[in-house]
Each structure stands twice: as C-alpha cells, then as structure tokens.
Predict the structure.
Amino acid sequence: MTVTGVQLQEYLAGLDYPISREDLVRWGQENGASTAMLQMLRTLPAEQIESPEELNAVLSSLS
C-alpha cells in the first residue's frame, strides 16, 4: 500500500510543532501507523519541521 501525503497529514493532525523526524516516527509507532507510513516518516530529513505546511512541503518533495 502506498501512503499519500494527504493520508499522512490526516494521520498526524494535532501534532505539536516544531517536531523532529524521530518524534514523528515515535508518534506513528505509538498510534498504530502502518508499516508504509512509518517507512515514509523515516525518509524525512532529520531537522526540525516547524509547521504542518512545512511537513506537507517536505512530503510533497518525496514523491
């Protein structure tokens, strides 16, 4: 199954920003994210993501 940026954004709604890749992966693990979602999160850059808009931009650049 392929995960879209929109699906990931919906899943990650309500996060507190800024957030790091490690924290995003941890959030996913704690909230039952699929393997595909966790793999997508692990491909994000390690630096802090400052806002949902920035996360969306980073996710868009992965496709």
